[in-house]
Predict the 3D structure of the following.
Amino acid sequence: MKLRSLTLAETRKKILEKSISQADVYNDIFASIAESNTELNVYLTTVDKKSALEKASAQISNELAGLPIAVKDNFCTRDMETTASSTVLKGFKPQFESTVTKKLQENGGVIIGKVNLDAWAHGSSTETSQYGRSLNPRNLEHLPGGSSGGSAAAVASDMCLAALGTETAGSIRQPAAWCGVVGLKPTYGRCSRYGVASMASSTDSPGPLAKTVEDAALVLNTIAGPDKYDATTSPKPAPDFTKTIGKSINDMKIGYIYHDLKGLETTAALFEPQLKVFEKLGAHVEKVDALDPNYSVGSYTVFQRGEVSSNLARYDGIRYGKDRSHFGEEAKRRIMLGTFTLSKGLAEKYYSLAQKVRTLYIQDYEKLFKEYDVLVSLSSPGFAKKIGATEGESMFGELEDMLLEPSSISGLPGISVPCYRDPKTNLYLGLNIVAPQWREDLVIQVGHAFERETKWNSWLNINESND
Amino acid sequence: MTKKNTPFTSAQMQHVAQLANLELTDTQAKKLATAFTETMEVVNRLQQLDISSVEPTHQVTGLTNRWREDEVDKSQEFTQEEALHNAAHTHNGYFVVPRIVNQDS
Amino acid sequence: MNQMTNTMTNAKPKYRLICGLEIHAELKTASKMFCGCTNNPFHAKKPNSHTCPVCLGMPGGLPVPNKKAIEQTIQLGIAVGSKINQFSKFDRKNYFYPDLAKGYQISQLDIPFCEGGEIKTPEGQVGITRIHLEEDTGKLLHNTVDNKKVSLVDFNRSGVPLVEIVSEPDITTPSQAKEYGKALRDLLRYLNLADCDMEQGGMRLEANISLIESTAPQGTLPDYKVEVKNINSFRFMEQAILYEMERQAKILDAGETPTQETRGWDSTKNKTYVQRAKEDAADYRYFPEPDIPPIEISDAHLAELKQQLPQLPSELRSDWETNYSIPLKTAKLLSPNSVAAAHVSDIFSLAQKSDIKPLEIANAIVNKKIAFSGTETAKEVIQHYQKLTQTDEVSGDELTIIIQAVIAENQDAAEKYKNGETQVIGFFIGQVARASDKKLDPKHVRSALIKELSQ
Ligand SMILES: [Mg+2]
Ligand SMILES: [Zn+2]
């Protein structure tokens, strides 16, 4: 077995035991990048192996033991090109560090490169990247999803041990589902947004994409917590997220939502049998009705594009970057719609309406969480779409992310864990687990229990997925 | 029952583009008008919901008073060099833009 | 002088001025409004050196509000009698300009920190509509570089806390507009909230000007409004309002309505000019700032802010008048800010205890008869004053010898005195003072002179 296919937790253990060296790990990961990156188009920037290894050796006694991490290219990294996958920022070298990447590095993570995303995180495919789409490592004819598609693909292709992404509405969990990896979207306000190019400020949430739930928890431990530079982070100190790894889910109440949505019949038939595992583990699963996620699409579309139109106003090419003519089609489309819905006389009609609908979702969750510890559903309506699927689809992302949007706009934590693999296409479905605000511990506990009891994680079941 | 909205026009797109500080070709404006019509149809479905008794949610954290004391924080302050590092045009420590108004100061 | 009333000296003026002001002032804080950068734009060593990811609008720069600036805004509100909105929030005002780093200004739309209140002027009260807190923009310099006309941008001012004080359209004359502005400036300085350096742009004036028929009932508002921006002195504001009154009167006389528009003041040509017509009136696309949670001021916090507020200048000055007979003009000079005012109050009270009239000390300070830098203790100031008025001890014999010598030298004058021209006594006092090398008490000299001259 190659070192690259060890999980973060396993690699860390072996390094601390000195059964392998950091150099062994870096050699194999960089070999993987050399083999696959040209074809997959995942890394936009990589660092030099030697300097990465030097950093790693200085970090060996810290939490992440100097292990190699990929970072979505919308995090500002000092002196390292940061583009948000847009040519507007081509050549931009921030003179400061985002809080999350700063924390990651202080806790022993080493950034080995910056990975592709949908430009400005607008999309669910990486097809809006102005540096070309990435491919799904599980099946090269398919897309990795997005916007954190590069992060998911980097993990799935063993080109890093874990990755950082951001989710505004589905952007961590949907690509995680499509690439067969774990994606953890923390509670809004759990991880700082300082230094992350803002998309929709009121829902942007940085978080990890990883091989396993435990790996995701390990990474989250290093990046979570209050930040004096982000007024929307919670002042609560972050707990140890690995605490609920391995904890029993016996007697937990799990609500299965979005079980009868139109168009989901085929995937639901594959998904539902997987939930039996929970019964086996002593939990109770019940189908329950939640507010139709179709409305979240409209609500999210309005306030997100409004915030986008304002957040992208700073890109004028004066202080850094290039002028506004370099925006791609999707960014322009979003800026335009947001500008329109915020304009005189319309803000009340659209913006305020969208935010009221948001309240309806929050109230719906409050009601559901009185009954259930966590809620589960599919992460995405289907498997990864083929390349080129976004052509002419102005609402592509919103529809692909529909099952995740209600929890995103409500600021709740969620995790996507692989829950089915199609043997013919080698493509995955994801199980989405959502918990109340600040209860990442619950989604980690339930996600981990599911992952250990099923055969869908390709790193924990190496033989299973090689058929 | 929601009535079908009238489609958007290129002229409307050009007006919005002006507000957004974007330049659009005629082709782009036409394409955008179509996309607008599609998207606003999804948005207009929201009117089916009863929102008469709900307040809008602008923020989900429930936090208030996340202010800071009035202290200078040198750790984040850029040097002039750092501030100008990524600028396309600079002059004597300033950012340079084409003349805004026609006068010397 | 108001030219319009000038030209119609005998008749009642045809139109009445309806005017409200919007005044921006930069708050005096150590750091900027939403980041920890130094708030010192006018004295920075280099352009763009007090900047950071937040005030330069870098990707992911996020605002964290300055508590002191919020408290200062609320204190200003308390001082003018505003209702304080204990629940408030910030909003984004979106527009593009090269000096606006983020492409939006963080401001307040529907829930400003303060609503209502008033400022007194000699021509009557002017109501305050609202006071809100926002951030300043960077600064543009227009220049020619390499033969190209360019604008240079300095972001040291970007994000400096700025209060905007909007008045009711209660101002009825250009001079009242000036008085209102001055009163507000004095208050901001007095409370140590702002320096209001007009020349540097630390305080900026905008006037909303319209006219209505004099016969229209009070409270009626005209159906148009002309906004004049970029006024950087009270004198220019007075001139701009006068100019507009004449310009608008002519249009109204012709039976037309002046165009609703934004105009600027050209201080070299002494006229206003169109900046922006109504058709392209800005659409700022306001929405609640998602990066800053709302602000809730508790009752206790508000009470504390009230308590911290020094005695207001109007109250202080009237106290001085009642207790110490200090006229308003002198009082104003001695109370530029609350710290100086408190110090002077201490001096007055000590003076009274030392049997010195506070007014005499006040005059001595104002007329620079005694050194007064503000750093002296009250006791020292009193001592300086006493020294100023102190006289040397002279023996009666010594004085008599001098006086007799002076009389001997001025027999003519002595005759005049004896003939009833007693005013020559002043002449003698002067001569005696000159003849002596000591500082003599004039009262003492006078009585001694009278005694000698009457013999
Ligand atoms: Mg303003
Ligand atoms: Zn700053």
Q: What stands out?
A: Residues 1-8 of chain C have pLDDT under 50 and may be disordered. The longest strand of chain C covers residues 15-26.
